[in-house]
From TrEMBL:
Residues 572-591, 755-787 are annotated as: Disordered. This is Beta-adaptin appendage C-terminal subdomain domain-containing protein. GO terms for cellular component: clathrin adaptor complex; endomembrane system. Transmembrane segments: none annotated. It is a peripheral membrane protein. It comes from Zoarces viviparus (Viviparous eelpout). Keywords: Membrane, Protein transport, Transport. Belongs to the adaptor complexes large subunit family. Residues 757-767 have a biased composition (Acidic residues). Its main location: membrane. The keyword Protein transport applies. The lineage of its organism: Eukaryota, Metazoa, Chordata, Craniata, Vertebrata. It comes from the Eukaryota. It is found in: Endomembrane system. Residues 632-807 form the Beta-adaptin appendage C-terminal subdomain domain.
Length: 814
């Protein structure tokens, strides 16, 4: 918003710029132009001075030229006609003897970004590619990339492309790197710059001449090259060996990424490369820059997935500093958990115990959670620390400890005796809903061994009317029911009061329905109730699988030196897991095969009850058969941003509207399909639950409509990799939309007249026919998917997986 009095200021500046006395004095003229730039930076609209500033660019003063060019590039789009007046001056400056003036003119000629001026810019840019000064060639190369972005649909001049390929051998390393970037932009539709053996070896031999940014660009582009022989591969690795231990973290990371890409078939060489980068990574962890430290920690976590002992001898380098931010402390604690062994467990637990009383509550809870994860291997030592923390009587510490104990006894039932003794009196300190849910779950499972369990429950039940958390109420119902089965005399009266309140007075339908379910279950008898609520428990004599097996490097190599490692650990930095352990979901690693992620029996179970009703064209048997014949895997990488998703989704929207409401649109390399899936109440599912379920099968959700809002929409995407018999795996991109308009599909049953048993004759949609009775109303979600390139089998498998997820989330199935 322009400042008050800006019109007077602009008039004053115009008078000064037009004053002959000011124009004759070079310093006063430059000072006036500087005032114009200062006013522009303060938000004053000085576009009215465009013609005066055009006249001011005709000067030999380089400082004044720079100031004027800043103004002209800012307001050129608002004054396209007056901008033509600048071209003559710029073209004249392109022939100036001073290379600085020539480069300045070329740069600002392309920064005007006016399509009408393209014809005047091409000739100076072509001449700039052959200029004797390196600074002019640098600007000219990037100018062609800017010109292509200005008119992306224009034809590519082959002569210019050949000229740029020739400049890859320019003696100036910056010109060489700029050529790579320009060719990547200009030839984007053709796959980028062509990388062959001569270009590869030329770039590698000149790698050391470039700066850090240039080396990273070269190494990134070389990932597309595949050596023709093993000898050539090892020659390339020898050239890259020095960059692998570079003191610059970006160069080291880019080199290792190239190593892993080239050595995908040589795991021993890849492991040796990981050993080599241990020193540079540890040095990056001690960098002054917080961002560099955090990035190094995230990539170390990635390496530990394949080499768990890589940093074992250097665990002290991951101890937290007092002044470090919380996000770095929490990431370091995650690394420390991976480095625990018999020799250092005592020192690590001592260090983590100190973090449990950190002033930052998130850091303290993360430390307690880390102790709990170590407790799966060293339960006695960790339980001693956790029990001691309960004595501090601090709300956030007690809550985190109870949640950690809940998770620990779930995987280590042999710890239950110690946990039951520690629970006495915890309810007085717990205030947050997550901690109270964890305590209630422990009382439900081990209530017969906690002497004060009925009294603790009575406190919860007496305050149920003022309880705001839905999760606590539902957990309280389950706990009271399970405790009634093992201690009926003490809890019968409390259970009656709780069920009466939840059925008669509770306003939330979820709590009311659960109470009604338990009430009706009790009418079936105690034994039936026991079978439902008290399932099989883990055998305390069984051991626990400690740690995790080393993963192949190929599972994460594609994400190294990207932003993905920075986001993968976000789930682990949260406080202890939400809800009961039975409902905890684990995020699978990218590219996990779907046969491991989705149990075949689960798919068959869901589809057996839904194929006929939903009209889904692919049966579970066909899906499983096809998955065995040609494995299908989904992946979230490469990530798709909202802008790119919108562009892909809308680019064919106009053609869809012209063709009408077709169910299936097919092209040579593209397919668009619509399906109707019956999912009772799925639009009422929380966005968090839907997103977690989708991510479990590597489907990424980008946007949600709030629950209970019509029309309800969800946008999602994934990448499929489908291996055809005898062919290389084919990768496709699928983008999709889930749409629910609120119009349920009403179904009726026609009853045959004149029969005694009233057999059901047929089931159809209601059409106002006599002799038919409405029996159900089902909600349908419209699924629209677009795939490119086209792969029918992969699309069929994706739709089957999506249907399974939606039916699993449906309350009727839960």
């Amino acid at each position: 918003m322009p400042y008050l009095g800006s019109e007077d200021a602009v008039r004053e500046l115009r008078r000064a710029l037009c004053n002959p006395n000011v124009q004759s004095d070079q310093l006063r003229y430059r000072s006036t132009i500087l005032k114009v730039i200062r006013a522009m930076s303060q938000g004053v609209d000085v576009s009215g001075l465009f013609s005066e500033m055009v006249k001011a660019c005709a000067t030999v003063d380089i400082v004044q030229k720079k100031l004027v060019y800043v103004f002209l590039c800012s307001y050129a789009t608002l004054n396209p006609e007056l901008s033509l007046l600048v071209i003559n001056t710029l073209r004249k400056d392109c022939q100036d003897p001073n290379p600085m003036v020539r480069s300045l003119a070329l740069r600002n000629m392309t920064n005007l970004r006016l399509p009408s001026l393209v014809e005047y810019v091409e000739q100076p840019l072509t001449a700039g590619l052959r200029d004797r000064a390196a600074c002019v060639r640098r600007v000219a190369v990037l100018g062609w990339a800017k010109l292509h972005n200005l008119q992306p649909n224009s034809e590519i001049d082959a002569a210019v492309v050949n000229e740029l390929y020739g400049l890859l051998r320019d003696p100036d390393p910056v010109v060489m790197v700029n050529c790579l970037r320009a060719l990547e932009e200009i030839l984007k539709e053709e796959g980028g710059v062509a990388i062959n053996k001569p270009i590869t070896h030329h770039l590698l031999n000149r790698l050391k001449e470039s700066d850090v940014w240039g080396q990273c660009e070269v190494l990134k582009i070389l990932q597309r090259y595949r050596p023709q022989s093993e000898n050539e591969l090892f020659d390339i690795l020898s050239l890259l060996d020095a960059s692998l231990v570079s003191p610059h973290p970006p160069v080291m990371a880019a080199t290792l990424s190239l190593f892993l890409c080239l050595c995908s078939g040589l795991p021993a060489v890849s492991l040796a490369a990981l050993e080599r980068v241990r020193g540079p990574l540890l040095a990056a962890c001690g960098s002054v820059s917080r961002e560099t430290r955090f990035t190094a920690l995230c990539h170390i976590q990635l390496l530990l997935r394949s080499l768990p002992g890589l940093m074992g001898a250097h665990y002290k380098r991951f101890f937290c500093g007092y002044a470090e931010p919380a996000y770095i402390k929490q990431r370091k604690m995650q690394v420390l958990v991976e480095l625990v062994n018999d020799d250092n467990v005592a020192m690590l637990l001592d260090e983590l115990k100190g973090y449990c009383t950190d002033v930052n509550t998130d850091t303290a809870q993360a430390a307690i959670s880390a102790i709990g994860r170590i407790g799966r291997s060293y339960s006695d030592r960790c339980l001693e620390i956790l029990t001691g923390l309960l004595g501090l009587k601090q709300e956030h510490i007690t809550s985190a400890v109870v949640q950690t104990m809940r998770d620990l006894v779930w995987v280590c039932p042999q710890c239950s005796d110690t946990v039951c003794l520690a629970l006495e009196g915890c309810e007085e300190t717990l205030q947050d809903s997550q901690g109270r849910q964890a305590l209630l779950w422990l009382l439900a499972v081990y209530g017969e061994r906690v002497s004060s369990a009925p009294y603790t429950l009575e406190v919860f039940i007496d305050g149920v009317r003022s309880e705001a958390s839905l999760g606590v109420k539902m957990e309280l119902l389950t706990t009271t029911m399970r405790l009634f089965l093992c201690r009926p005399a003490e809890t019968q009266d409390m259970l009656g009061r709780l069920l009466h309140y939840c059925i008669e007075e509770e306003t939330d339908m979820c709590v009311r329905d659960q109470a009604l379910f338990y009430y009706r279950l009790l009418h079936c008898g105690t034994e039936e109730t026991r079978k439902v609520l008290q399932g099989r428990r883990s055998d305390p004599s069984l051991g626990v699988l400690i740690g995790r097996p080393a993963e192949p490097i190929s599972q994460w190599a594609y994400s190294f030196n990207t932003l993905e490692p920075l986001t993968q650990g976000c789930v682990e930095t949260e406080p202890a897991s939400r809800g009961s352990p039975e409902h905890v979901t684990f995020d699978p690693k990218p590219n996990t095969d779907l046969s491991d992620t989705l149990n075949c029996s689960q798919i068959e179970k869901v589809h057996s009850g839904s194929d006929s009703a939903s009209g889904f064209p692919y049966s579970s048997a066909n899906v499983l058969a096809s998955s065995l014949a040609a494995p299908l895997s989904l992946s979230l990488s490469p990530a798709l941003g909202p802008e790119e998703f919108e562009r892909l989704w809308m680019q064919r929207q106009a053609s869809h509207a012209d063709q009408g409401a077709e169910k299936l649109e097919e092209e040579e390399d593209y397919v668009c399909m619509e399906e109707q899936i019956q999912c009772p109440a799925i639009p009422h599912c929380s966005p968090q639950s839907l997103q977690a379920a989708m991510q479990l099968v590597n489907i990424q959700t980008l946007a949600f409509t709030p629950p209970h809002t019509l029309p309800w929409r969800v946008y999602l995407y994934t990448h499929t990799q489908h291996a055809h018999s005898g062919e290389a795996p084919r990768i496709t991109l699928i983008v999709g939309e889930l749409l629910y308009t609120g119009e349920a599909s009403r179904r009726v049953v026609e009853i045959k007249k004149g029969t005694e048993d009233g057999d059901v004759a047929e089931e159809e949609e209601e059409a106002g026919l006599s002799g038919r009775e409405l029996v159900s109303e089902e909600e349908e979600v419209k699924v629209t998917v677009k795939q490119q390139p086209r792969d029918d089998k992969a699309l069929k498998g994706f739709l089957s997986i999506l249907t399974t997820v939606l039916h699993t989330l449906s309350p009727e199935n839960n």
